Amino acid sequence: MEHTYAVIMAGGGGTRLWPVSRREKPKQLLPLLGKETLFQGTVARLEKLFPPERILVVTVEEQAREMRDQVPSIPEENYLIEPSPRGTASVVALAAAVLKKRDPQAIMAIQTADHHIRNKDLFHYLVRTAFDVAQKGYLVTLGITPTFPATGYGYIQQGEALEGDYKYPVFTVRRFKEKPDEATAQQLLRSGDHSWNSGMFVWHVDAILAEIEKQMPDLYAAVNKIASVWDTPDRKEVIRNIWYGLKTQTIDYGIMERAEKVAVLPAGGLGWSDVGSWDSLFEVLLPDMNGNVSTNAQHLGLDTHNTLVYSDDEKRLVVTIGLDDMVVVDTGEILMICKVDQSQKVKDVVEHLKKHHQEKYL
Amino acid sequence: MEHTYAVIMAGGGGTRLWPVSRREKPKQLLPLLGKETLFQGTVARLEKLFPPERILVVTVEEQAREMRDQVPSIPEENYLIEPSPRGTASVVALAAAVLKKRDPQAIMAIQTADHHIRNKDLFHYLVRTAFDVAQKGYLVTLGITPTFPATGYGYIQQGEALEGDYKYPVFTVRRFKEKPDEATAQQLLRSGDHSWNSGMFVWHVDAILAEIEKQMPDLYAAVNKIASVWDTPDRKEVIRNIWYGLKTQTIDYGIMERAEKVAVLPAGGLGWSDVGSWDSLFEVLLPDMNGNVSTNAQHLGLDTHNTLVYSDDEKRLVVTIGLDDMVVVDTGEILMICKVDQSQKVKDVVEHLKKHHQEKYL
Q1: pLDDT at A332 (0 to 100)
Q2: Residues 6+ apart with CB under 8 A from B130
Q3: Mean pLDDT across the stretch B258-287?
Q4: Are B87 and B249 in contact (CB under 8 A)?
Q5: In chain A, at which end, N or C, are there fewer CB atoms within 10 A of the end residue's CB?
Q6: Residue B1: pLDDT over 80
């Protein structure tokens, strides 16, 4: 595993987990699943494969301080700070350019800070295999075998099996597909040759930089310029001058969809979740015999079923009587109680609060 | 209204409004209906009829301090402190004996500290009429015209109309009835001649003390002995020596059921509530067009109906999505969410907490 690195993308926000996920405290920095935050969980998962000095974090200044507090093991120079988010294409390009300067043979595994993986052993196995494939010059994606017709993820269609002595099935990629509608998602689920795009990638810095140079030459020039002054006093000024001119783009749309040598490892049973909505916590945490899950709260439920109780105050006693299929979120100055199948309406609440100038609750 | 006094009984506890009503903070000291506590509301209602120096409060030491803070207008000597609760018979007897020493012509209106009355003008009208009836030597009860077959209240059956020039219909009392079962309550509701026993009484001190002497001679002797030393340094010692020997008894069972000259004013439309359970708040507070009521909390309800939201933190934003017929109580270290028709299970929770030695939540 020499020359291998992990790069954690950790700049995002998002409102789907409001009111816990807030502007100044995004999802990855919260102990959504218990004592550990998603960011801490991501680092812990990676530390089985990488020493801390080979784990990089790309984030924004507002989040970096909290991250350093949560994970003091990662050295300061491994935090790559974006002046502002410009999409995952810029994140990947910056990390690849900086890494290449440090280690021209670097192979990097891209991770997101706010996902959860239950089966860590399988994850480590997959990443090790992906490094072998990346050594051959492939851009490797970790695909997730679909378990329901999700409309919230992009899909990857696999092609033929890749020749080679790999310890896990590897396929070429036929096509990337954007988030489908419900009917298409049903087809893709049944097709048997489509995986969810998890946003986890493994590649050699040369391979990804070659694609960036071809498909996004402006970005390529920009990150090279930034990387050339990274270890000099000019870094701050150069990055500021360049960064705000970059166009916001995802790595999937900007690079992967038209890239040439792409492979996929379709993983079933990984227990992967993007922890993207309140009801997704039911999948990640293990419900008790009544179907209830609770995080941090002391929950006393009478005649209560399929109900999630989250509190950020361990001393809080949450008593529920006669509740079914509910999400209870008790955090700071906000209490939210929501029928599970209506949890997508959280964004309506966020819109309402914006409209009525109650930004303090956002 | 010379020689008229109000006596507020304020010693009680009770768990039906847990988790807001707690051991150290009983119902009457809480702002259950808004900014004002039930005790403050009771005093405000009485101050239209009585100057503060003619309002007395019978309570226990643990509650007296908070009461003085909440209502500074009542003079210190008007707080009659029981060493421990011994039922309403002892409360009434003590107040009557002490009042008689201060004013032998005193007529007293007994009130409870933790009830709510919406129609205050009618209340004042009734009390004034009751004073006229009490002047004739009657023990007067204010009855409440039943609006549903309640099994939680005692009932009063009226007899013939009382002769006299009263400004409101007055009847003799045929019988007091203890809390009935459901079938009996249905009959009583339909009978047309039964009122709920509200626990509000008006009488001359001589009239009630004569009944106490006859029916509870030990209590009579005890309160006379206490009253004789009330304004001396011996008060504390004498009351302590006597009080714990008193048997616990209600005024209804101990005196009223067998008293001779009893009258009732059956009041309809008073908007009276004993605020005895969470769902009773729906009757007291006025629901909005979706049937929701909220106290203190900022409530933002989407697709939410017939739901009560109580918070003791005005800054708290309570968001509900897809809730029907719920009670949400957010107080200090406890959050309770309960289906309205299961709110009687609150006492099961209290039992559970006792059994598991979680007294701090009681």
Answers
A1: 84
A2: B109, B140, B142, B202, B265
A3: 90
A4: yes
A5: N
A6: no
pTM for the model stands at 0.81
- B18: Cα within 13 Å, side-chain hemisphere: 27
> What is the predicted pLDDT for the residue at A32?
86
Please tell me which of the candidates A316, A319, A352 has its beta carbon nearest to residue B300: A352
Q: Any alpha helices (H) in A165-321, and if so which ranges?
A: 182-191, 205-215, 217-228, 235-243, 251-254, 280-284
The residue type at B275: V
Question: Of A20, A299, A96, nearest to B335 (Cα)?
Answer: A299
Max Cα–Cα distance, chain B, nearest Å: 63
b/e map A166-192, b = 16+ CB within 10 Å = beeebbebeebbeebeeeebeebbeee
Q: Which of B26, B300, B349, B348 is nearest to A317 (CA)?
A: B349
What per-residue confidence (pLDDT) applies to A46?
97
Chain B neighbors of A342, CB-CB under 8 A: 302-303, 321-322
Of A126, A120, A127, A138, which is closest to residue A36 (Cα–Cα)?
A: A120
CB spacing of A342 vs B311 below 8 angstroms? no
CB-closest option in A302, A316, A341 to B335: A316
Residue A30 C-alpha, separation from nearest chain B C-alpha, in angstroms: 20
ipTM over 0.90 threshold = no
- Looking at this protein, which amino acid is placed at residue A265? L
State yes or no: cis peptide before A19, omega within 30 of 0. yes
**Structural tokens at position B108:** 């007293």
Residue of B nearest to A344 (CA): B321
The pLDDT of residue B11: 79
Judged by CB atoms closer than 8 Å, whether chains meet at A318 and B302 is answered as: no
Residue A20 with chain B: CB contacts under 8 Å: none
- Contact, B295 vs B314, CB < 8 A? no
Tokens of B130: 């009751």
Using N-to-C axis directions, what is the helix angle for A88-102 and A205-215, rounded to 10°? 130
